[in-house]
Structure formats: structure tokens, C-alpha cells
Amino acid sequence: MVMLYRLYRALGFKCGLLSTVEIRIGNKLIPSTHTTPDAVRINELLAEMVAERCTHCFMEVSSHSVVQERITGLQFVVGVFCNITHDHLDYHGTFAEYIRAKRFFDQLPEEAIARGNADDANSAVMVQNTKARKRSYAVQSMADHKARIIENQLIGLHLNIDGHDVYTRLVGAFNASNLLAVYCVATALGETPLQILTALSDLEPPRGRFQIVRGTSGVMGIVDYAHTPDALKNVLTTIRDVCTGDEKVYTVIGCGGDRDRTKRPIMARIAAEYSHVAVLTSDNPRSEEPNAIIEEMKAGSQQLTARAASRWWTGAKRSPWRAICQTWRCGIAAGKGHETYQETPV
Q: Given this model, what pLDDT does residue 25 score?
């Protein structure tokens, strides 16, 4: 949604944004506390956008908000399904319940537009009962809209989208999918491919999303919001794809307290498998004991080879920059992204 907002700003529109990262009303920035605010707050913000003469509002709709009917009564013009990941299983319990919770597409009217990511196995199920006009997009699968990765480097992606070449500043196959989704929405809303691709070529990644920080002596840091197994693997495989092979990758990762505990060993295992060293630390432990969370994460080492299982550095106080300064040449601080705070036990 952030990229859609930035695209339409670049195209000259005055827009609103409701997202995990931030809320925007034109140039006005409002801190975001939830991916999707409560129903009263959403309508307050939409009313303010109308008063400010915004022509578009781009909104992230969480599964929580659908179940809790925070979006009831809103009329959406376009709905996009990107993927289903491990996120929010602490709330929904199972993937089946998570999928059922995302009944957003069932509520779209006939005049609306639905776009689904055919690379995700759940896409067909998500949009199967929608009344909206539906089309698919994909990077790896057959779809109505296709993107092909020509080059994937640290300076950006060279893509072919529906037969058109575009060079972008974003990195990684997951961003190829994101850019394609943005393209699909914009074309559905009536913008021309040339307008869209020209604007996309100049977009920068959202704050805290594969954000590259370049240091001296070739040291490079990457800050990302990856806080699910799928997201973490996407980021780490992207680093592997774009690096020359001589770099050492150090990953700083934590798992949130009072949230899905089943992903903790999975994320630690992924970090160890795809890094030279996995730095296990805190990420919003909330009411839980930070060291107890780390111990649950370390359980993932039991499924690793002896070499990978030895790649641990732990500390309950999240101090990734200490780890960076001590050891790494190329690394990722994952899980926090745009967040600048830490929720700790009282």
C-alpha cells in the first residue's frame, strides 16, 4: 500500500494512506498503531481525506480487522490478495481459520476489481466466491499479468512486466511481486502502462523494508520488517542471490512476546541456515521473559546440522549495532523495520 500511495503521489494525485508503517493524508503524517484502525477511527480519517480533497485512499486490511468488522460498511474499488503467511496465527489458531477470516473478497460488489497473486497456493480459494471482476498476477506461475526478473542486483531490479522493460530501485524477487501488484492495481484504475512504469522506476523502498545502510570499508546493513518465517526467508534468499559470495552474512532476529510461539524455532532455524551467524535477541518481548523466548527460538537448532547449529550469538537486550560493529560484513537486522521502540516486561 505504501508503494501504491507513493506511485499515485508521483503521478500527481493527492492521496491518503492507512498502513502498518504510517498514516498519510496528503502531506500530513500521522503515526500508525495498527495495520487497520478501528471502525470509528477509519471513518474519521477517511472524512479528513475527503475534506482535504484526496482522490484515492490506499488501505492495508488485516485479517483481524475483517473478523472484528472494522471495515464494515466501507466500499472498496479494488482488492488485492498478496499472500498468506505465518503472521497472526496466534489470533486465528490455524491456517484454515486464517483463510476463512480473510473473507474480504466475498464482500466486494460486482463493480469492484479483485486481483490475486497466482504464485500463492491460496489465491484461488481467496477470490473464488467474489462477485468482483477478478484477474491474476504472478512472477512464477501462469497468470493474466506476468513479471519476469531479468536482473536482480543490489542496485535494483530489471523487470519485464506484461512485455514492458522497467528498471527499479527495489531489490529481490518478493519486490518483483510487489511491483507487479502495484502495476495491476494502477492499470485497473485506468492509468497507462507507460505512466505507471516510468513512476515505478523512481520509487524507493518503504522505510524499514529491505532498507540498505552502506557503511565504510564495504560494510553494509539491511533493515527489514521481516517478522514471519516466509518474510525472513525471502529477505535472506534475496541477499544470497544478489551477493558475490565473498560476504559474511550476520542476521539479528527476535520473536515477539505474547504472539505465535510456533514460529520461534522456525525463524531461528531459517536465520542459521541462511546466515554465517544468527544473532538471537529481543523483539517486543511484551509480558514474556526475553531469555525464555530466546530459548524457544534456539530449539530450532535441533533440526540443523552441527555446523549450522553452532552459528549462534544471543543476548536478551536487543543491541544489533553491537553485533554489527563486532563482526559482520553484510547483515540484516530483521523484525523491527520501521519500528523505533521496544515493548518490554514491566
A: 97
